[in-house]
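I'll show a typical protein example:
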Amino acid sequence: MLVAKRVGAFVGLLGLSACSFASEALWPSLGGNQTQTAAVRPPAAPSTAAAPVTASNMPLPPALGTTTFVPPPVTAGSNTGTFVGAKVSQHRGELVALQETIIRHNQQLQGVRTQTTEDSQRYHGTVAAINSRLQIGTTPGNPVLLGQWRSAQSELERLSADIAQLNSLANDVAADSGMASYLLEAARATYGLAGAIDEDHRQLAILEDETNRTVVLIDRLLNELSEDIRRQTAYLSAERRNLQTISIAIQNGEILGQSLFNRAFANAGPADAAPAAIVGGAPQAAFGAPQIAAGEQALVVIRFDRPNVQYQQPLYNAVAAALERKPTATFDLIAVATAQGNAASMALNLTRARQNAEEVVRTLTDMGLPADRLRLSSTSTADVSTNEVRLYVR
């Protein structure tokens, strides 16, 4: 396998067996069977691959809100014996019932926050244990780590259940908000009723102010709930992708890092050509013609010159470093087949090269790279002796 990588300009060198060095020639043109005069490759910049996620630097869950939402008590009033006074007493009782509901919902909120914090701590403790073991190296597919990974997945599902509770609570508080708005309008409408005495309007003014404060309190509760749900949902989505990347690391027995998706901007535009398509949960290559300038250097070159080429870690490091420098980067993935031999051999080589490229696409998407960041193509050239997959950054 040959892996080449530059970090300073998105291309550098990766240290593996059969690696390229600064004295080797630049890659030839990818167009057909044409050849190009070789030039000496300049020395690569020092590697700045992203540091792996460990117990000390792993991202923490977002902080939940800390506000306690308890409305002030409703002021008691006297019975004036008028029809308006009876309406004021009725509205006061409805406000008391609403505030009792708010207090109950606040207690539920604090309980869910406590539970979410505990679930997050258990999840991060499990993930930290996995990453710590991967950091020092372990056997591929270590069953102990697989068991811990399944535990982390279960703990992440508990976090998902916590978010569902927050959503349900938000719906209940929204109903409280509707009731509070109704009570406020009813109190204001009571001013227009005939037969009131001054004491009725005095008590009604107090009730209106307290109802208005309750409306403001509920709005604050809804806003904080919305923020908690938004942050926790984004966090859960990111951790699901990180767990997928960790599963690849366990298969290889070495640490990778965070999901590549979490290193990229969510609003980055797709590549110009057709990207990899997701069919049945697996990426399928839509190969087109390569659009690489002659002499352009690849970010990563993988030579499939033997079975089971271990390219995952260098590939992850190279792509992660590229996304660190340019989060909106897209990538051209080219299957390069050797054109040596007769027509049947060349056709077979091209098929195998495309299969290798599809494997690399699956690996990248499993690492979290969005499929719309990849543009696939294939070509044949007599300038290589074995099939390759080349990755270019844009």
Confidence is low (pLDDT under 50) at residues 1-57, 264-285. The chain has two domains: 4-50+263-393, 83-252. The first helix runs from residue 83 to 136. Residues 4-50+263-393 form one domain.
